[in-house]
Amino acid sequence: MSAGLLTVSPSPHIHSELTVPQIMRAVIIAMVPAFLLAIYNFGLGAVYLTALSVFFCVAIEYLIARYLLNKSASIYDGSAVITGVLLAFNVPSNLPWYIILIGSMVSIGIGKMSFGGLGNNPFNPALVGRVFLLLSFPVQMTSWPIAKATLSLDAITSATPLGIFKEGLRAGESVQALMTKMPSYADFFFGTQSGSLGEMSTFALLIGLAYMLYKKIITWHIPVSMLVTVFVITGIFWLIDPSKYATPLFHILTGGVMLGAVFMATDYVTSPFTHRGMLIFGFGIGLLTVLIRLFGSYPEGVSFAILIMNAVVPFINRFAKEPRYGAKRAKDKELETVMH
Amino acid sequence: MSLHKHKTFSIGGVHPDENKLSAHTPITPLELPKMVIIPITQHIGAPAKIIVQRGDAVKAGQIIATHEGFVSSNIHSSVSGKVGIIEEVMDSTGFKHTAISIRVKGDEWVENIDRTDTLIEEVALSPKEIVARIMESGVVGMGGAAFPSHVKLSVPEGKHVDHLIINGVECEPFLTADHRLMVEKPKEIIVGVKILMKALGVDKAIIGIEDNKADAIEIFENLLVTEPGISVEALEVQYPQGGEKQLIQALLNREVPSGGLPSDVGVIVHNVGTTYAIYQAVQKNIPLVERVVTVTGKSVKQPSNFLVRIGTPVIDVLIAAGGVPEDTGKIVSGGPMMGKAIADLDVPVAKGTSGILLIPKEDSMREEVYNCVHCGKCIEACPMGLEPYRLLLLAKKGNHSRAKEEHIIDCIECGSCSFVCPSNRPILDYIRLGKTQLKKQKKP
Q: Are A273 and A267 within 8 A, CB to CB?
């Protein structure tokens, strides 16, 4: 009896089910609720823009991998699809096609492939593209169509609640007066404010978060640390002067905080390796977001906060280590020898 | 089942599918093979020195190679017959080692060996005599590492041991050899524990068993009611619960210092299979010439637990389990997490062979490798709290001093990092390389 040629390789001989393409697929599934809500709010425009963005991102990655780097196409891992969806999630739903093309080129071409593709980029590619667009096309990037649920007329554009808030404060209005112009917290939670395509609904994003946690794609550390930080710091300011600062709940529910906490800051490649590192990372993003929102010139700061913290990740990785087996004991021993 | 959560180790760990296909298959003695091939290196330490010649008639239980120095082990003939050719053969490590082949004739044993099933509870020998008998009988660790047991029992001066831990965890998926032994020979194992306690002069022993072996736990709980010093502890199913360092931490919350031994924290750990072999050696004068081997795999016709004479070629064991399935792509000596793939079927069963695992073709090749996506799962999984991704990079670059600072030597090679890596990166392969090169560098 013969078994033919046997494979000989070092252990382990089994592998867990989870592989990179499966992870990417799970993340895409997690983005579905937010996407459905975008369709509900903005109609087919949301589908059109997201499809364009995904197509451009995948195509650009394919062309660069194939013809510039002479590597086999790396598009099948699904990461370019995620970048495409996230880029669309981070822009107004009525953005012209050529702007999203430029955004895709910057995201994939500069943000990802110039560093060597998946796993090598220091900055979140979708955010690199988004911020590039924000600086290059400030008008188009800051006029959001109003969500259908709040206004059933033809699409009119408006600033986001955060933008209205900041302008109002500058004009000398009080927080109380401004809040009366705002949709209710329930509207914020379920996603009928105006804003970027994917950041509308805290509720839809939380479903995505729950799915990723359940599938063990990500851990709770970054989202919780970031959200708690935003809540606590804005809460402190609100307690100090409620006529000048909005409630912490307002800050959690509006703008890109939830989208950032769930999908942008949790990007594996550009976030720290260890749980301790993730907690520091989330704290840093939360802190910077609040500082930009309260004292910066932009009404919203999540994108900048994440990109800045992306740059700090290598340092966090260097120092935020998990407890090592035997380390505690070794320290005790050192202490013992010192004392005797 | 009680709601009480069982103990487990606190850092890292993974949960591969258990696949204990042969958990309820009783141990059956394997038919005597026509020939055995007995390597003289079946243990950690110096190879044994051959004292027989081609043509010599030997009996089962007779010493055919003696230990060279203290960290070494005697080798006995596992069968009666005639010594054949003595040459280098490839064993389960993949390296060539000298081995003695013996053509089997009858089954005649050395006279003073007690082959009956009578349980002898009274431990007559003194601690020194126990260690000497264990050394004489060629007992080595049967959990896989095959470290000579008498060395473990000789605790260095100045170290105080207060606990004996018996490792009945068997955390490797598929393997059931220890499980069956605990179910079928619990009384012998308990006497073995008492022998070890006497040899070490300790009054506390804990048998650690993963809670997927409820029958074994119950048997010991019942038998140990009348044994005040010995207890059994159920442990959560989590790999590598049976790692010596992890088991000590789970049971006693003590951590073995980096580069240290369990005796540094007052503990000695022995595997249940070893404990049974020690009972056999001390009470029945039977040297280590046979062991329980699990033959298993998803396509194996009859997943089994066999009592196999040392030196039996793997092929003979496989035939007894229904033959080699058509779709076999890889054969592993040991479990799927830490076992070694063997290249051909003539490799002999050794003292450390706990199982033979047949892996179908579609599962025997590694999947496509992607770039590291920084998911951190290897760090979450590492039971030593290391950063496997970083060790891979450092080993790849040949940066051994940095790898040393990152405690590459602490790696227990459990394979959890490679198991979880969603990019299928060969993390452990590179860590092994790094460790080997670091050790080489140290030598003058």
A: no
pLDDT in tens, A227-254: 999 999 999 999 998 888 889 998 998 8
Q: Which domains does chain B have, with CATH numbers?
A: 127-284 (3.40.50.11540), 377-442 (no CATH)
Contact B414, B375 (CB under 8 A): no
**Is it the case that residue A339 has pLDDT exceeding 50?**
no
Contact by Cβ (8 Å): B34, B105: no
Whether A156 and chain B come into contact, CB under 8 Å, resolves to no
- This prediction's pTM: 0.90
- Is the CB of A172 inside 8 Å of chain B's CB atoms? no
Q: CA B15 to CA B18: how far, in whole Å?
A: 8
In the numeric block, the tokens 């637990």 are attached to B305
Rg (CA), chain A: 22
DSSP B366-407: PPPP-------HHHHH-TT---HHHHHHHHHHT-HHHHHHTT
List of chain A residues whose C-beta atoms are within 8 Å of the C-beta of residue B388: none
Length of chain B: 444
The CB density around residue A41, as the number of other CB atoms within 10 Å, is 24
Residue B86, pLDDT score = 93
- Type of residue at B343: A
Report the pLDDT value the prediction gives residue A198, as an integer from 0 to 100.
Answer: 84
Query: A-chain residues within 8 Å CB-CB of B374?
Result: 119, 268-271, 273
Q: How confident is the model at residue A153 (pLDDT cuts 50, 70, 90)?
A: very low
Nearest to A107 by CA among A82, A126, A84, A132: A126
Helices (H), B212-337: 214-223, 244-252, 272-284, 314-320
Which of A302, A79, A85, A101 shows the shortest CA–CA distance to A197? A85
Q: Give the chain B residue whose CA is nearest to the CA of A13.
A: B336
Q: In A155-255, which ranges are continuous DSSP H helix?
A: 161-170, 175-180, 185-190, 202-214, 221-240, 248-253
Helix, coil or strand: residue B268? strand
- Min Cα separation A248/chain B (Å): 31
Pairing between β-strand B163-167 and β-strand B267-271 as defined by DSSP bridges = parallel
Cα angle B3-B4-B8, degrees, rounded to a multiple of 5: 125
Give the integer Cα–Cα distance in Å for B174 and B303: 10
What are the phi and psi torsion angles at B163 (to 5°)? -135, 140
Is A37 in contact with A195 (CB distance < 8 Å)? no
Task: For residue B141, give Cα distances in angstroms to B152, B166, B234, B273, B353.
Answer: 9, 12, 22, 8, 10
Q: What is the pLDDT of residue A340?
A: 45
Structure tokens at A175: 């927080």
Interchain pair B345, A3: CB under 8 A: yes
Residue B328 β-bridge partners:
B360
Nearest by CB to residue A11, choosing from B255, B337, B407, is B337
Q: Which residues 303-322 of A are in CB contact (within 8 Å) with B?
A: 321-322
AA identity, residue B209? I
Size of interface A-B (CB pairs under 8 A): 178
Question: Mind telling me how many Å the CA of A73 is from chain B's nearest CA?
Answer: 12
> Rounded distance, CA B118 to CA B131, Å?
23
Contacts B422 to A, Cβ<8 Å: 16, 18-20, 22-23
Pairing relationship of beta strands B81-90 and B57-58 according to DSSP bridges: antiparallel
Maximum Cα interatomic distance, chain B, rounded to a whole number of Å:
64
